[in-house]
Amino acid sequence: MLAAAAQQEFLDWLRHERRASALTIEAYGTDIGGFLRFLTNHLGQELDLAALADLRLGDFRAWLAEMAAKGAEAATRARHLSAVRSFFRFLRRRHGLPNAELRLLDTPKVRRPLPRPLTRPQARAVAEDIGEESDAAPQQARDVALFTLLYGCGLRISEALALDVRDAPLPAAEAPLRIVGKGDKARIVPVLPVVRAAIAAWLRHHPSPSPESPLFTGARGGRLNPGVAQRTMRGFRRHNGLPEHATPHALRHSFATHLLADGADLRTIQEMLGHASLSTTQRYTSVDETALLRVWHRTHPRG
User: Fold this and answer.
1) Cβ proximity of 216 and 146 under 8 Å
2) What superfamily would CATH give domain 3-104?
3) Which of 84, 102, 193, 303 has its CA 20 to 30 A from that of 133?
4) Fold entry, domain 120-299
5) What are phi and psi of 178, to 5 degrees?
6) Residues forming the active site
7) What is the pLDDT of residue 282?
8) Could you tell me the pLDDT band of residue 35, with boundaries at 50, 70 and 90?
9) Phi and psi for 180 in degrees, rounded to 5?
10) Do residues 11 and 25 lie in contact, with contact meaning Cβ atoms separated by under 8 Å?
11) Residue 2 phi/psi, 5° resolution?
12) How far apart are CA 221 and CA 114, in angstroms?
């Protein structure tokens, strides 16, 4: 069987047996097709299953190297390699194709981008002034409460919008906020008085403050859509000259970065953010080092 026919058989299997989406099938077809075209030129022969079985580690590395030379980022190369590995797993199950070389190939390491926090004045301006974007007092109070909560507690936007009125941290109570985050993992987050005050101010305007109602509501009284909050933030940053990375999630990054700069330890920040791995939280140390070097270069006489 020719390699092109095996590729089509694999795509048909994805379509009919795995019920993969059209976009997924198209992506697999593009990635595997590029791999097979490279091998045809690299080996100088028409490919069949025997040729695929005889591929060596150097052949796979040459393919990845060519993609890198053409400017493909590590994430792109990793995605193409994942598609090829799926293709070879299919060939092994369907046709008994042996090729252990692919298992020896390392996946290109994808560097996660560093978090991009706001400065303290920028984050404070968002939390305090974002309500000015609206002429309606209820919406002003809601937006101030939401963005004060995001910065003051380091929540994801989805976590904040999932809260109900019964979860609201009010001034009369001193209990921390219980958040259920990714993977249904619960965590406890302390709540600043300014956050409690902003929530209380919003609840005075809440259209239906029964315990089971969403804490943050939209125009029709249902749970606020995250797209509305993101749109509000876009408008605020354009009118106030904030950078493009000023998003609701940037307030979470700002929360962690500012805590770290003020001496909070990584384990505590990890718990408050709900990170499963400390390595995820450690990214904020690189952000703080970058800021430190920037100050050093700007202020040192020989910098």
Assistant:
1) yes
2) Tyrosine recombinase, N-terminal domain (1.10.150.130)
3) 193
4) hpI Integrase; Chain A (1.10.443)
5) -100, 120
6) 156, 182, 249, 252, 275, 284
7) 74
8) very high
9) -105, 110
10) yes
11) -75, 155
12) 37
pTM > 0.85: no
**Other Cβ atoms closer than 10 A to 90:** 19
> Per-domain residue ranges for the chain?
3-104, 120-299
Q: Give the amino acid at 242.
A: L
**Alpha helix (H) ranges present in 156-192?**
157-161
Block residue for tokens 């109570």: 173
Q: How far is 276 from 204, CA to CA, in rounded Å?
A: 36
145's enclosing H/E stretch is helix 137-153
Q: Which amino acid is at 77?
A: R
Q: Which amino acid is at 9?
A: E
What's the whole-number mean pLDDT along residues 37-63? 93
Phi, psi of 42 (to 5 degrees): -65, -40
Give CA–CA dist 177/87, Å, rounded. Answer: 47
Please tell me the predicted confidence (pLDDT) of residue 261: 81
Q: Which amino acid is at 122?
A: Q
- Asked if residues 257 and 232 have their Cβ atoms less than 8 Å apart, the reply is no
| Helix, strand, coil share of the chain (percent; to 5) | 65, 5, 30
Q: Judging by beta carbons within 10 Å of its beta carbon (0-12, 13-18, 19+), is residue 53 exposed, middle or buried? A: middle
59/174: higher pLDDT: 59
Is 146 in a helix, a strand, or coil?
helix
CA dihedral 270, 74, 77, 39 (to 10 degrees): -150
Contacts of 69 (CB under 8 A, 6+ apart): none
Under DSSP, the state recorded for 102 is: G
Question: What is the DSSP secondary-structure string of 108-128?
Answer: PPPPPPPP-PPPHHHHHHHHH
